[in-house]
Amino acid sequence: MAAQGYVSHAAASRRFAGLLFLLYILAFELVAAAALTLLLLFLDPQHAIVTNPAGYALRYGLPVALLSAVMFWRLYRGHAAAVTRQLDVRLVTLVDEPRFVTIAEQACTTLGVRVPRFGVIEADEPNALTVGEGPSAGLMIATRGLLERLDDDELLSVFAHEASHIRQGDTRILAANHALMRTALLWQLNNPLRIEQWQQLFLMICLPPFLILLLAGGAVTMLSLALARFARRGIKLSRDHVADGEAVRVTHYPEALLSALEKVHRRGLFPGFRSVEGLLFDGPADHEGGTHPGLADRLSAIRSLGASLFEPTRGRRDTRAPVRRRFGVAPAKENRRRLYPTDSEGRPLQQPPTPTLRLHALRFTDPDAYRQWQQAQIAWWEWRENDGRNPFGIKPALAIPAAMAAVFCLVFWWPRDNDLGHAARTFGPQAVVKMFAVANSGPECDGPSYPDGLCPGYSYTPEQLAIRREQIEERRREPVSSGPPNEGGAMFMSLFVFAVIGLALIRPALLKRIFGVVDASDEQLGRDPFRRR
Length: 533
Hints:
The protein is mainly alpha-helical. It has helices at residues 6-35, 37-43, 53-77, 79-87, 98-111, 134-137, 144-149, 152-167, 170-190, 201-206, 209-233, 238-251, 254-264, 295-305, 332-335, 357-365, 367-382, 396-413, 420-427, 429-439, 462-477, 488-506, 508-514; strands spanning 90-92, 117-121, 128-131, 139-143.
């Protein structure tokens, strides 16, 4: 996106927003293909992605694409609402904040931008940001520290900079990037087909088809995250230079913008800023891991552009008045409960609890607790997107154990006669289909008295009879192999299920530790911790 001025930058922003939409659909298709694998292997094995990619694309490709478009629009239009909840933004009107709203409306009107809503973050750090566009989905936000430290001309320059981001399409790009990254992180959080805990290694040792499924699921997760990171890197530094230039053009007051930048630089990083870093008026520079140009570059560009507008003797407007809190109105962050403490950059101090039915029920019984839990989950995984995972999504601490488990699985389950057909049936996705079919085919009686494998007295359904007959025919046609029997997978699955059920009944705490479950506290579940039970 090599934009040299406002017109080319705005055109490039529109093109890049379209690219982000296509990347979102691609990432969503990848996510859906992996998420539906087990379900389709059980319900519709003839059209699963691993058994029939073409059939899956024809039957499920278009519905998934339409669903992804709906999800993208929902996240895109809801970006302002998400930021409002995440940063505890208090929406204000002309009555609440007359100085702020008057100056911001003047900046929007001068630039020909539809006036958005306005909000205040009760933080002492001076900064500003803009989300979305228009009166319903747009939001221009200022911190309390910015309103108290800057005079009127400085504020006008800052809000003209922010309004320019709306006019040139930067907020569209950032909203689309938010939708893409959020979907990738939610998939990483809820993807069952990935190796995240060492306990999952036993699954692929006992059930060989899960070796390929777990590795493929982790690879899809990493690919969707790679697409989201690619989109994040597409947020160009030129957007701030163009916005600075537009602010100078409409205010004719470069000195005000220069002094505003000098007052805000390195002082505006309020708690939780990292999640909205790309939206900030002033944030970490690109060489510090951010997406903003350095202060020296911005100051030099402003001085060069506005050299003919400098008037050292010009006076400043300043209508600041002592802050008087309205009786009965307290800042939002003082009233809101904090269920998941974070550090100054928004990182959760502890791992959020594992998803359970009780936590999901909070969506209806305690929406605020549910949103805090979901945001904490996303933040927890977002901060671990650069923890050195390999292309299969395995973190370094699990790389060697996962490799050893994979080698053991291959050695133990590989046919001793090196029959590739037998190996494909053992490790391929069709083995999962067969496991589900055999597990649901009713009891089997073995021995010379039961050549058909059917147990007397049990009423088999027509589907179960068909599976049993097919199994008998396969045994007759299949040559004798010295490797593990084909029924081993089903046997191990049954033993695994019984072991899990037994632990759940006898030692539930041990089962939680084995699977890495993190329990939620009473407060996080919306219960009174002091209530007697």
